[in-house]
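Just scan this pair:

***
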Amino acid sequence: MKAKVHVELDELVRLQFDQHRFSFLPKQPIHSLLSGRHASRLRGRGLQFEELRHYQPGDDIRSMDWRATARLKKPHVRVFSEERERTVLFVVDQRNGMHFGSARATKAVAACELAALGAWRTLSMGDRTAAIIFNDEETAYVPPHRSRATVHRICSEMVTMNQKLDADNRADNPQALNEALRQAASLAKHDFLIVLATDCHGAGPETRKLVSQLAAHNDMIAALVYDPLGIRLPNIGGLEVTDGEKRLTIPDGKSFQDNYEAAFVEWGRLIHERFSALKVPVLPICTHDDVGDQVLSALGFHG
């Protein structure tokens, strides 16, 4: 099956009818990627102060306002309510390295599908959506809003960026990932949910620093988009590959195949380990399979 090279706007808009099957909220199924000790539970919407009232039996002692208690000579607690909205920021990688896929879709298309699904779901939950879409040369930013027009604009910007991907484009900017994360850090001061969709090309010490900064005061999910051909090459001796300038003949034999696969597995392990150390769940997204089904499976939802 030939991979879908570019995504169309009507395809991303239609995903609004498929978004109801999962949730990014704190209450997750027991097998969800977002529950348990191996990943942080999402905070959900932020809290805002509502009132100060007398302490009542059963109130959480952590809600006690000790200053008011001392001043008024009677125990008082602070009552909070959930904010009606929180902001979910999608950071979507559309660099040239994402313009690759061996079946169903390219990594760039899969990243757009994931972000569109998440954006439509965010809107249905009454929260605000925002997006940073970037390639090797430019960035598009959609400010946070709770409206269909905003989600539609996010989808439109992703399509515009995705349509610019061309096999003849030689631009390669590994630092673009850090630049996008730096912009996200300047926008997401606290209580955002940040969903990063990327293949992590160019990730390094600076990436770790920026992710740590973002995760300190926000929730974050790293959707690691990959293609199986990047894990194991087909068993075709003498296969030639090129980047348009240089040509390389892949050696024949099982040894090279095994070393290639081992290198990819080790790279994936390191990426997962680094994100996990920062309590950022990693959501693997394969280009060969339906993105919605993969999200459902990872988050423990069925049907």
Notes: Strands lie at 47-54, 76-82, 87-93, 128-134, 139-145, 193-198, 219-226, 240-242, 247-249, 282-286. Residues 36-41 have pLDDT under 50 and may be disordered. The first strand starts at residue 47 and ends at 54. The longest helix spans residues 254-277.
